[in-house]
């Protein structure tokens, strides 16, 4: 099978809050998505959940089924949640697009009891992610779509008490435990990596930092004054006071030179593992037409 490696606008919010107990907050986020997404899609999509029993249950995009899905969120019975673009399964065109029209993932590792020792020893985190293929927008992300994604991003940070997060425009499919492009490049083990309260997941068009990141970079005022970004915006959650760094006015238009400046500024809070590209690394960025928006090759 021959594939097309196009791009998507992706958001990721990473948290250590127990999302299985945040049913109301997750319902609010999915309502935002489901109010906005269906008109974009010519085909249908389903919401796929994995239950505590490890079985999968699908919910169709209709009122009765969505109400059942919301009820499952209140019960806290889902280990993971994904929006699955049904067009991806039906599309038999050649070459076949690798990026779904829509992808989303929520992980709720806490739906099952976790031993206290594992919580202390491992980097167990939850995520909320959403990705929209550029094919929905004729390969150029419109300003209003950028605004919608930014609003969902901020809402997810606040509702889920995010510790870090990002919005990117690259060849990535949103998922529950999908590594970032930088994590993939250095083959980082996400479960044993330093906690995301200390380290970011990479450098992006939009990057969300919280207290420990800001302290290591010189403090809030220093970051606001010296970051090489177009816009810096404070944001507050139940537990965190953070900053959102926006690299350029338009996600369609930022350069490797700008990314390199951002990477240099954020080095104290980035995780490079052993600092060498894994010999076994095969990322989307290694395929013709794929875009990983990293600048590691320029160093």
Explain briefly what this protein structure is.
The protein has 299 residues and is of the alpha+beta class. It has helices at 23-36, 63-75, 86-90, 116-121, 143-160, 181-185, 211-217, 220-226, 256-266; strands at residues 3-4, 8-15, 45-51, 56-60, 78-85, 96-97, 102-107, 126-133, 164-170, 206-209, 231-236, 241-246. It has one domain (3-271).
Oligomer: single chain
Poorly predicted segments: none
Large-scale geometry: globular
Number of domains: 1
Alpha-beta content class? alpha+beta
Estimated helix fraction: 25-40%
Strand order of the largest sheet: 4-3-5-7-8-2-9-10-12-11
Radius of gyration (CA) equals 19 Å
Beta-strand percentage range: 15-25%
Average pLDDT reading: 89
The count of strands amounts to 12
Largest sheet: 10 strands, antiparallel
- Count of helical segments? 9
Order of helices and strands: EEHEEHEHEEHEHEHEHHEEH
Give the CA-CA distance, first to last residue.
35 Å
Structure, described:
This protein has 299 residues and is of the alpha+beta class. It has one domain (3-271). The chain has helices spanning 23-36, 63-75, 86-90, 116-121, 143-160, 181-185, 211-217, 220-226, 256-266; strands at 3-4, 8-15, 45-51, 56-60, 78-85, 96-97, 102-107, 126-133, 164-170, 206-209, 231-236, 241-246. Strands 4-3-5-7-8-2-9-10-12-11 form a ten-stranded antiparallel sheet. The protein has a two-stranded parallel ribbon with strand order 1-6. A hairpin with a 4-residue loop joins strand 3 (45-51) and strand 4 (56-60). Helix 1 (23-36) packs antiparallel against helix 2 (63-75).
